[in-house]
Amino acid sequence: MPTQATYDDATLILRLYELRREEKLRKAREWFSANFHAASLEDMQRIAPPGSQENAYFRMVVSYWEMVAALVTSGVLNQDLFFQTNGELLFVWERVRELVPAYRAMSKNPNSWRNLETLGNAFVKFMQANGPEAYPTFQAMVRGVETSR
């Protein structure tokens, strides 16, 4: 059973939103949204090669959302309130989902992006429980596929 969100949860949600508005993170998020479409580590290396500005943007976005996910998965931030106010995490998870196994193998770190994965998958279940067509529609939009109605 979900716990009741608190004033502290709301305050943290607002603080996280303020951080997203920071100029460098805003540029990184804009770049990520428009340009990061990788299905493999090779794609990732081509799109965001190590040492490049694009790689810095990629790391900034993914590490930001991994940090936020850790706040939720550790119980510091109310999960239901987070899901109601932060769809961008699921967007980022959808963009990196396919890379996770290869990235973990390459980095020799089985916990890379673990919080993002845990919360991303929980977000999918949340969407499915609240609207069965919401997640497939969202996933198609992230992948750039038009949905027909």
What does this structure look like?
The radius of gyration is 16 Å and the shape is globular. The relative contact order is 0.12. The protein has helices at 7-20, 23-35, 41-47, 53-73, 79-85, 88-96, 100-107, 114-130, 134-142. Helices cover 70% and strands 0% of the residues. It has one domain. The protein is mainly alpha-helical. It contains nine helices and no strands.
Number of strands: 0
The first-to-last residue Cα distance is 35 Å
Tell me about the biggest sheet? none
Output the structural class: mainly alpha
Work out the helix count: 9
- The H/E string reads HHHHHHHHH
Shape: globular
Low-confidence stretches: none
Radius of gyration: 16 Å
Helicity level, as a percent range? over 70%
Tally of domains: 1
Mean pLDDT: 94
User: Beta fraction of the residues?
Assistant: under 5%
Features of this protein?
70% helix
Produce the secondary structure layout.
Blueprint: H1 7-20, H2 23-35, H3 41-47, H4 53-73, H5 79-85, H6 88-96, H7 100-107, H8 114-130, H9 134-142
In short:
This protein has one domain. With 149 residues, it is mainly α.
